[in-house]
Automatic annotation (TrEMBL):
Localisation per UniProt entry: Cell membrane; Cellular thylakoid membrane; Membrane
Residues that span the membrane, as ranges: 32-54, 92-112, 132-151, 158-175, 197-220
Main location: membrane
Originating gene: atpB
Protein name per the record: ATP synthase subunit a
């Protein structure tokens, strides 16, 4: 019987995938998932290097990499502007852009880089977004941003939205505000982990062409997951600012 928390394809290192087994760093009384931090730092490094290259020699008529990075910036601007609105989107672009780029690069590095060739004492390197701790942390950031957006624009009057429709449903409205970002985290975690498991199984069973097709589909899914997370985060922030949630509760 296969333990669902530990799946290992023993016939090939490239097909091995360990779930629930981590490489820990002991810092005081805390145990930190070392492999998640390592790959997260690599993702951040990739983003910093890409930003430095794109801005090192800015031209009036962009070419090549600068043109690509400007397209990415316009794409993120479109997400923020469409969901948050013309008035407030600029102040939230760095947050929405950071979410999208971190998740996108994490997912793609997890799919494209053969991390399993790097051996750790325990666990293995993989996309940070395949770890529930990372996705829940991102969801908590969205929750904090959501409440900050509402409070900074409406003050304490923001909380009146919870009792406008019915004071008796107050716990449900509060729970809804926390569960919506958390549902994003579980969707992202589940999809990225499932993609890695499927690729691992196909590499084990059909180690030639089929895994490449599945990997290409996984890259597309990874990009879509980053887009969904960033877009819905912007939607939630836009609702907090404009008060769409109140309208929904009234109906």
């Amino acid at each position: 019987m296969i333990n669902p928390l530990l799946f290992r394809a023993h016939t090939t290192n490239l097909a091995a995938l360990e779930v629930g087994k981590h490489f820990y760093w002991q810092i005081g009384g805390l145990e930190i998932h070392g492999q998640v931090l390592l790959v997260s730092w690599i993702v951040i490094g990739v983003l910093l290097i890409a930003s430095a290259i794109a801005t090192s020699n800015i031209q009036r008529i962009p070419a090549k990499f600068q043109n690509f990075m400007e397209y990415v910036l316009e794409f993120i601007q479109g997400i923020a502007k469409d969901q948050i609105g013309e008035k407030h989107y600029r102040e939230w672009m760095p947050f929405i852009g950071s979410l999208f780029l971190f998740i996108f690069v994490s997912n793609w590095l997890g799919a494209l880089v053969p991390w399993k060739l790097i051996h750790l004492p325990e666990g293995e390197l993989a996309a940070p977004t395949s770890d529930i701790n990372t996705t829940v942390a991102l969801a908590l950031l969205v929750s904090v941003a959501y409440f900050y957006a509402g409070l900074s624009n409406k003050g304490l009057g923001y909380f009146s939205r919870y009792v406008v429709a019915s004071p008796f449903l107050l716990p449900i409205w509060v729970l809804e505000d926390f569960t919506r970002p958390l549902s994003l985290s579980f969707r992202l975690f589940g999809n990225i982990l499932a993609d890695e498991l499927v690729v691992g199984v196909f590499v084990l069973l059909v180690p030639l062409f089929v895994p490449l097709i599945v990997m290409a589909l996984g890259l597309f899914t990874s990009a879509v997951q980053a887009l969904i997370f960033a877009t819905l985060a912007a939607v939630y922030i836009g609702e907090a600012i404009e008060g769409h949630g109140e309208e929904e509760h009234e109906h």
